[in-house]
Amino acid sequence: MNIIFNSLERLDDDLIEMTYEMIKKGKKRRSVFRAVRYTVIIAAAAAACLMLPFGIQKWSEWINLPVPAAGPNGTVTEAAVTTYQTSEATTTHADTAAYAVPENPCIKVFDYFYGELPEVRELEFSVPDYPESKLRWDFENITDISREIPVTLYSGMPIWSVYLADITGDGRYELCSTISVGSGVVDKRITVYDIERDTLYTLQDRGATDYVLAEKDGVLYVRAYAYAAFDSGSVEEPLGEIPLTLSMLTPVSDEPANAPPPEKIVDFVTADAVPMETSNEIFFEIEQFPDLDFKYTGAFVGSGRKDSYKLRTLFDADTVISVYLADINGDGAHEICSVIKNGGAESVVAYDVSADALSGYITPYSHIPHYELEIIENSLYMKSFLENGELFSEEKLEMSMLSPVTDNDWPENDESAGDTPENADEVLKNTLALKAQPALEISTALLFGGAPYSELIYELSEEGNSYYSEYAAMSDGWYFSTESGMRWYLNQFFTADAVEEYMDRVAEGEITGGKITRSKPASIISVDGDLYVLIAGKETPMPPAFDSAWVESANENEITFRADVMVEGDGTESYYAPGRYVYRGVIRNEDGEWKFAQMQPAVNCGLAE
Amino acid sequence: MEDERIVELFFRRDEQALRAVEKKYGGLCFSVANNILDDPLDAQECVNDTYLAAWRTIPPQRPVKLSAFLAKIVRNKALTVYERSHRKKRGGADFAELLSELDEEIPSNDSVDGFMNGRFVSGVINDYLHSVGKNKAAVFIERYFMCYSIDEISELTGYSYGKISTMLHRMRLELRQRLREEGVDV
Fold first, then answer.
1. Window 522-541 of A, Cβ < 8 Å to B
2. Model's pTM, two decimal places?
3. Which residues have CB under 8 Å from A597's CB, separation 6+?
């Protein structure tokens, strides 16, 4: 027998155990492997992306959490629910599990998420701890019908499930549901209603992750899936699952007592007026910041000290459609909330003056062409509308819905970055100059464009191939280069294996860095050794070409990159006018596969020269 | 069930220990045995022998890493069966291919084998595997300790067949170089 083979008899135990653990993880290993590189290379940028909703652990901690093993204690009894047969579960749970099984095991009232919805979408049930209770599910609402005047406790589009579980630890059941928002296009999230305290909680990661409840061994779990993965019909395994606990949830409370009421400064949608010219100006104040003046023009919101003529740009756009003041993060101070329009795409942004930071919400997949803000019952609501004008979703605006906007998208927060309002062009120029500095050049994730080899495209494209093949004849500008100046022409890279080889050499330090080069209508990104076609323009109103792109952040679940996009031609085939735009794209790891997930216009990008 | 608890059951001579081992590590043991023997019946027999061996050796032994402890036993059991059946011209074709891979770049050398008694070489291999990073090490161990086929490793890892072949080829060359640097005549 071979000497190496025999010597492995004395292989270190920790190596064997490590391998065994990795086998159990299966294909997850691959993404983690690559993610390590990304994380090392762009650790700084990654930090921003690793921000997760309050109280939630990182994905890496979700995966492979210990599942309670079978044990001698606790049996979930058959349905302590009066009018509906429930849980098929007669399950046991562990006494030694990492997560203690609650004293009152979870009860499933119904869960249609993974199955077919019934024809009659209505049922009534009560909660064991509250014998007088009588609740009704009518597909979209949970209503307390035991009260003289029925009260809707919470809603969804639809409510997929109701579980009874003691999440707050008070020994009494809460109502726990998986709900969809925007028929699932916004996201799927968890809602928990604490009957005892009349308090609603939520677990959501809007537009990024879907959360779904599931019961196992008397424990209520939350499973996380890549956003919209269900809609693509490709979901098999969740990204991770973990017992649902109170610490993951965020209370959905009424406005805090000290919250200042929302205020409308200007809104050209609801006023049914044409957006004002840039030369028109509105000055306004925010009560909590008495030393500051704020100024709005049709394309700009800025602020400055009252004792100074200088103004800083807080945010700008092709058009700032509306400006509202509302406390959307519960800090007792107003934030400036606006609908803005850039290159035809609308977004909602909020500037937190206290933190001097901006957040923006940008349409996933560009399905939402139009937003409005509106004050309803002392709260600011965000409405989104479909192309045909139909109301798509209506939600109370909260800061947690918005993604942080990185510094790269915005002028530096110092006086010099701003300018007098008369010199708005200069402000824009400064902004664009900052944007021109790449956050970080892609190194292991190589992006390069053009598509001279139809076979390659056919082989690599995840979607229909006919669209890509029309670019088969375009062969100019096909190369990617390294920082050392070595230029690799694409004809050296016919296959994914060759690119893997290149990436290995990058990883091993033989080649440092990499650079993205000009692309033609289709772009190809190599992630984790696989190539994917990034393309837009036909099916979605996206510009069809990338000039360049840089990784902004990356973790084991997704890579966010910024891309400069040049739209050529007369714009008739595109939603966009000719010009250069800045986009943010996401490549997401779905079910062990890296896939191009979504591309969004970066807030405040505007047209470049 | 945690490993410590399973070992505790062994110490109490509680047969629940065997059921727990079967449940937790049965798949691992069977895979290793079947990867070598390519015969489910023989493999299952090895697995049963492994449980018996564990029953006999715990106590006095108290393994810290039960998975590694069992994997080593079942590997040895399967190799014994393999050698016996190989003499009868039977045995897994994949496993023979695995050995030929190793022989190709790091051929067996009786003098080394005898002289070093394998211990020194084991130390070099362990050091090498600790130095190459988890993923590479895992692929190596999956191939040459657990005896998975390259196709199976590809399935386990998501790497392409070509990538794994290349990775293993490089590792064998690096390991040979490392052994030579340490004065092992391979």
1. 529
2. 0.33
3. A226, A227, A558, A586, A587, A588, A590
